[in-house]
Amino acid sequence: MSKWTTSNIPDIRGRAFVVTGTGGLGFEDALALARAGATVVLAGRNPGKGMEAVARIKRDIPKADISFEVLDLADLASITAFGERLGSQRDHLDVLVNSAGVMTPPTRKVTSDGFELQFGTNYLGHFSLTAHLLPLLRKGHDPRVVTLSSIAARDGRIAFDDLQATHGYKPMPVYSQSKLACLMFALELQRRSEAKNWGITSIAAHPGISRTDLLPNGTGASNVFGLARRILWFLFQPAAQGALPTLFAATSSEAKGGGYYGPDRLSETRGYPTVAKIPPAALDRQAAARLWDISEQFAHVQFG
Fold first, then answer.
1. Percent share of the chain, pLDDT over 70
2. pTM (2 decimals)?
3. How far apart are CA 44 and CA 53, in angstroms?
4. What count of other Cβ atoms lies within 10 Å of the Cβ of residue 303?
């Protein structure tokens, strides 16, 4: 795994990927996968931004097999429609990359279905999406689900008594909760896949601290976090570098089910892919099972 880069991506020609998020890490994932010959569906809520991302990739890789599909992870109806469209278009899916997200809006916002925006988008939206795509994944070749967490998960806790942060919303703790939930989901999905013979490998990854628009888009450019991203840009590694742990998890034969991968330097904030440290809270199997059951009720889905 020493200094793994996109040049180490194996032959993935003919493999079908869905990547959520049309900018930042999602864009870099899609670009690298398309360059390596994969069939890529780039999914996001903004058609203009999504089509521009596809156009940029095709300008760089004229023969890229890439398309855009509308998917709003903050709207369960949009997720259901996306799953139905994909099911009518394709007979299988090999890899799902759950990458898109929102970060630290300064005031509490909700999804179309009334869930707190960060929990509803980062975690519950991807939970629902994975459930809808499970039939296609089970028909894939060596199928994988890669779910993005964050180093912020280290400070997260699942507030079962207030999952929607209706009492005293604080942006960063709520973001940390959503990313801890993503990590717990990835680990629980692997356990359930093994127990129920779904044949799906579930892996988690995080990008360290990367130079994307996630912070300024969420907090606003004048917020302290947005200012830090703009003024202290040199502390953030390039998005292409931050995408490497995800690409490793999605393509490498060395990536293991139930694994967690992140950068290898400066407390996992930058560098090349390596095994990341799983926070103790993410290893609580009882909490993970409880969160899973609640999430199936919230999203009106059932796995398997």
1. 92
2. 0.93
3. 10
4. 15
